[in-house]
Amino acid sequence: MAETLKVAMPKGRIYKKASALFREAGLPIPLDVDETRKLVIPLPEAGMEFILAKPVDVPTYVEYGVADIGIVGKDVLIEEDKDVYELLDLGIARCRMSVIGLPDWTPGIRQRVATKYPNTASRYFREQGQQVEVVKLNGSIELAPLIGLADRIVDMVETGQTLRENGLVEMTSMFEITSRLVANRVSYRMKNREIQELCDRLQSVIFANTDK
Ligand SMILES: Nc1ncnc2c1ncn2[C@@H]1O[C@H](COP(=O)(O)OP(=O)(O)OP(=O)(O)O)[C@@H](O)[C@H]1O
Ligand SMILES: O=P(O)(O)OC[C@H]1O[C@H](OP(=O)(O)OP(=O)(O)O)[C@H](O)[C@@H]1O
């Protein structure tokens, strides 16, 4: 008998895109979970159980094995550096991580960078040979250069609307970001048949979508 797959699903913008992909792959799962306050959702018809998590926590649940697999942005994987097995690039929730600043930015003696991704930003500037102080913020990062907390920020850019509306410019695009399917290393061995079947189904939808 097939084993139930415990899936850590990020609430928010990734969920909507991931659920559409799962449904295209023939899995009967809810398209939206914004209405529910329930955090664990049994989905016996899909052979799954969804654990609805904050996006940044998904790799933690998977690393500890309380979820067998999870869906998470590459930005979070780079930042968190958890021991999980990256199985598939789902090609959804596409955006980029960039260095952003005011149009008249020039390098000063003391440079401060605000970001939700302090590890990624510190590593990036170290590799570039730039000495910067990194300040961690948890949202509305674009505020920082506008009100003088930081000279530049490292943040996600998708449509560029947030930058335009706040008079900021994208100085460097650091990485392309998409969501990934990740697995716990033990689960990948113990539930290999179920995980592989899911990967195969998703892979065919991803291929079909790239051809379009
Ligand atoms: N425009 C975008 N801005 C930020 N993240 C994006 C964007 N487009 C796609 N993503 C992806 O979506 C993920 C963020 O999802 P979301 O915005 O729902 O959560 P969050 O803001 O990190 O969390 P929360 O709102 O629960 O604090 C990122 O990790 C990234 O991979
Ligand atoms: O290029 P755009 O399409 O404008 O998207 C980018 C914006 O979206 C994200 O913010 P989010 O909506 O997650 O809010 P937050 O600032 O609270 O994290 C990100 O941090 C940018 O601010």
TrEMBL record:
InterPro entries: ATP_PRibTrfase_cat, ATP_PRibTrfase_HisG, ATP_PRibTrfase_HisG_short
Pfam families the record matches: HisG
ATP phosphoribosyltransferase catalytic domain sequence ranges: 54-203
Keywords for this protein: Amino-acid biosynthesis, ATP-binding, Cytoplasm, Glycosyltransferase, Histidine biosynthesis, Nucleotide-binding, Transferase
NCBIfam families membership: hisG
Function recorded in the entry: Catalyzes the condensation of ATP and 5-phosphoribose 1-diphosphate to form N'-(5'-phosphoribosyl)-ATP (PR-ATP). Has a crucial role in the pathway because the rate of histidine biosynthesis seems to be controlled primarily by regulation of HisG enzymatic activity.
Protein's UniProt name: ATP phosphoribosyltransferase
